[in-house]
Amino acid sequence: MKKRIRLLLISISIPFLASVTNAKEILPPGPIYTYTLSSNGTVDSYDEAMAVSCLQGILNRDSTMVYVLYNSTTRPTRPDYWLDIMMSEERWLSGRELKVLDNIDSLYELAEEKVKGAIIWDPDVPASMNVATTIAGIEDGIVFSPEYAEKYLAKWGLPVIKDLRGMFTGSETGSKKNDAYRWAIREYLSKGLCSDHLLCLYEDPFSTRERGDIVYVVTRDWAVKNRSFVYDLSPWGDEAPKDDPDQELGTDLATYHIMLGEILNQTAGEQMTEVAGFFSFSKYSNIPGHPSKHDPVPTEWETVYIISPYNCYQNTVAHNCYNQSLHSQAPSVMLKQHRPPLKELENKTYICILMADYDSGTPLYEFLLKFWNDKKRGDIPLLWGINPNLVETYPDIISYFYETHSENDYFAADASAAGYMNPNRIETEHLPLFINHNQKFYNQLDMTLSPMVLDWDEPSADVKDAFTQFSPDGFATIVMDLHNSGGRSPEPHVWKGMPVMNLLNPVNQITNSDVSADIMSAHIPLKYTCVPTFYFFRIVWSSPFQVINTIELLKEKRPELDIEVLDPYNFFNMFKEHYSEQ
Questions:
Q1: 8 Å CB contact between 129 and 143
Q2: 157 CB-contact burial (10 Å; exposed 0-12 / middle 13-18 / buried 19+)
Q3: What is the CA 55 to chain-centroid distance, rounded?
Q4: pTM of the prediction?
Q5: pLDDT digit string (tens) for 126-136?
Q6: Is residue 137 a contact partner of residue 145, using CB atoms and an 8 Å limit?
Q7: DSSP conformational letter for 389
Q8: What φ, ψ does residue 138 adopt, rounded to 5°?
Q9: Domains and CATH numbers, the chain
């Protein structure tokens, strides 16, 4: 009975709970209203998604009221899938009535008493839509394009909170884009009106609105709900971005540092800040249609390099992450995963596999299911890398994977710990904060391993000391010194009881098991030595079936190795036993 009451309470609005004087007054939660976005890939569908996301974020701030779906004629969609799962028996939305909203007018009617007005963004300054989203969260407003303002302002009787058209001329920085963000920093972020725990790096309409690309529009319910600062800036100071080619070199980057400095000031060293979202490939990196001196992976690394000293960590890919404002309100529970019995160390070739890159919103929400539902999952031990701090965003989805794991499935933090940052870039004075942040999420997800710490150099003594506090069972790293500053990978060793090793990254995604087996073999010396050897491989977005095939082919190619695939706990424990004797 106690469990049932807890599940009901989670969806009752805070104002209502405050008025409850006895248990008899507690009513069951109301219906969940579903709204289905059009998927016609037009400017109008883009503007619709923007308005809907604002309304959803406002309505779901204190209750679980609106769930957004989208049309698909080819396959079931993830929003449909997760809604069915969470409404199934014994899950947190079980028993909730679903009501379909036929149009955006019906959605507005639900939110009418909470919406205070509209913010109109300037199509001549695409960045102004991100500024408008920031204002919408703070002011409880709806973001309108000029076309949507003409269509709905009078119809809904909405006042204009802010009309951004013509406000940003480049008079301050020589860049309309940067004028917009610096104004928003001064007027909202620096005044403490925005969240200091969440920044949203969401692609603006520069190249997305005309083709109706809404992947970073449907996420904005999360920004509005949390009153987050929303931006889209280049991490590079040595070339102009595609969306602002005439800006003085380094203007985007300077604005980036102003924003991050203000976040550091707002947090006052008391908490870390998530950066949800990803840089725009088409504007800031070298892809077809946009020649750049910087490829995508270095651009990703540079972003993390920049944000880490400001106590920020990234939840990188966050597009198509629907209904975060609702999922995030699922009951938060302490999760548990099993530990295997420990084995005796033998003179074998030990291999452990990290199923990597489910560390951000999109892979967790969209991609993981495809591989999780593989029929061969559970046949061999696999370590699944997820981002533990995403329990703030999708607690119910993470719980689902924990509840459905096999005895051969294990979970650990992916890049880099509880969030993607460069630990060596954390200021020494802030390492206690770093420890507390990670302890919180590792404890909740029952994690004691950090198998994919990404950095520019081997971990310093202070960083290793920090990891021993929340990752005592193992630390593995990939070092990429993209600044040519002398960074190097660590030698295998044990640090104050914590195994320290490198994560091998040559295979990446398995597209051909025979080729992948050859790649693995190339990283194992040809001359077999009669001592235990340890190889920890990162595999990205591949199925258990593909991994098993690859391992079997490796065994055929290298029968002399006496290969055993281990679970991560035995793997790191045997590594520790072996290297402690060195």
A1: yes
A2: exposed
A3: 23
A4: 0.93
A5: 999 999 999 99
A6: no
A7: G
A8: -75, -40
A9: 118-327 (no CATH), 349-580 (3.20.20.490)
